[in-house]
Amino acid sequence: MVVIRRFCSFFLLAFILSLSNGCASLPDVAEIIKESLVGQNSYQIMSSEGLLSADKSKAIIQRLENSVDPTDMLKRQTAVVELITESPLTKGNKVTLLIDGLPTYAAMFEAIRNAKDHINFETFIIEDDETGRKFADILLQKQAEGVQVNLIYDSLGSSNTSPEFFKRLRDGGIQVVEFNPINPFKAHKHWLIHPDHRKILIIDGKIAFVGGINISSLYSSTLSARKAVEGEAMPWRDTDVQIEGPAVAELQKLFIETWHGQEGPELSQRNYFPEPTQQGNALVRIVGSTPGQNNRITFIVYVSAITFAEHSVHLTNAYFVPDNQILDALTQAAKRGVDVKIVLPTISDSPTASLAARYNYSELLKSGVKIFERRNALLHAKTMVVDGVWSTVGSTNMDYWSLLSDDEVNAVILSQEFAGEMEEMFDRDLAQSDEIKLEDWDERPLLPRLREWFAHLFLHLL
């Protein structure tokens, strides 16, 4: 996937203009944290039977915090997020961790085959390749069986996909929406570069998938399906989650909101919000972000979780070009004794982003942050686990495109069991990574330093 979202030259002017549509700045998370302290104990949890009392909600969070090394981060982070979003923390969810493309696609295909009412699908990239055509075939089959299929694809991300691919879907009865067409003559309202970077698949309002995985044969394990990056054919390393339970309704709300915002055709009458049932024990909050001064929600979630960490922050991210607030949160966490480890790609489909990321290595390493670069795979995952109990999986990179200009979505999961699975996955990535040591890093030649400095100048475009 030559990530089209990394256009810098041709769309530079358009991007700058798009920043004027809503201030291109990130909120002061420290101020939001101060405000949240006033109502820190007022949060409530939604169950399949409705909203729990404040006392019951507090007791659930307290039991979860007591299940791991003592930490107050759950209560504090929950209070911050409740202040900035109406999406509730939901109880009774089953969350399945999906590692890499083939297992994720297998789970998606099984869920699609079993669909009875509707399939709502939102993706940044869907390619006209072997994998994309497999998805097209099964979606068309379900549409022919009477299951309504609704698809949102991003115009920028899927710009290499042939119009005939989408025409075939439309001709088969699938309702298709192109998100923010990059062709100004097809634009719905105002033409601007504002991508939909979300990846959401919802089946019958009961099962949902969310994470970083696009629809592309790049995620195939076969060498012939991989695209050469910097001269090497590499597998793509990514992460999704499958969610069953009350949290699915929150993803459904995001999908329908986007559909209407893009002036999609009227949705057929289906049971988009079936009666929720308890499927597992995980607490889940769906966090969606769209551009706007007061809607950088995934950014606030990242910064506050790191800020409140008491024991560990284990972060994996594909495009690590953070702002100063994220850098400060990471360095301060390390300085107070938190085990901060970051896994980043050795080779990226965006070399400029990798260079800009490495510009920050010295500062992070000096504070005690441990940095690792993943070998033998192109790392595309966006995950974090904190204090062995708080986890997130989603589409949000720690770069300015994700934090300022994209529609993004993450699932935040509060569960000791799920966090344990995340830690095992993180350890496997660590075992296939090289640690960056400060003494070696400080001795690297001048030319790489200059390239990193130069790339950092363009961080707002990465």
Describe this structure in words.
The protein is of the alpha/beta class and 462 residues long. Helices cover 36% and strands 23% of the residues. It is built from 16 helices and 21 strands. The chain has helices at 12-19, 29-36, 54-66, 73-84, 101-113, 130-144, 163-171, 248-261, 297-308, 324-335, 351-358, 361-367, 400-405, 416-431, 438-441, 446-456; strands at 45-47, 50-51, 89-99, 118-123, 148-154, 175-179, 200-203, 207-211, 228-229, 232-233, 236-237, 239-244, 282-289, 312-317, 339-345, 370-374, 378-379, 382-386, 390-394, 408-414, 433-436. β9 and β10 form a beta hairpin. α2 crosses α4 (73-84). The longest helix is centred in the last third of the chain and has 16 residues, at 416-431.
Characteristics of this structure?
17-stranded mixed β-sheet; alpha/beta; two-stranded antiparallel sheet; disordered N terminus; globular; 462 residues; Endonuclease, Chain A
Supply the number of helical segments.
16
For the record, what CATH class of the largest domain applies?
Alpha Beta
Number of beta-strand segments: 21
Q: Report low-confidence residues grouped into runs of 5 or more.
A: 1-23
Overall form:
globular
Tell me about the largest β-sheet: 17 strands, mixed
Tell me the domain tally: 2
Strand % is 15-25%
Cα separation of the termini: 16 Å
In terms of structural class, how would the helical and strand content be classed? alpha/beta
CATH architecture annotation of the largest domain = 2-Layer Sandwich
Question: Radius of gyration from the CA trace?
Answer: 21 Å
Going by CATH, the homologous superfamily of the largest domain would be: Endonuclease Chain A
CATH topology of the largest domain: Endonuclease, Chain A
Mean pLDDT: 89
Q: How much helix, percentage-wise, in residues?
A: 25-40%
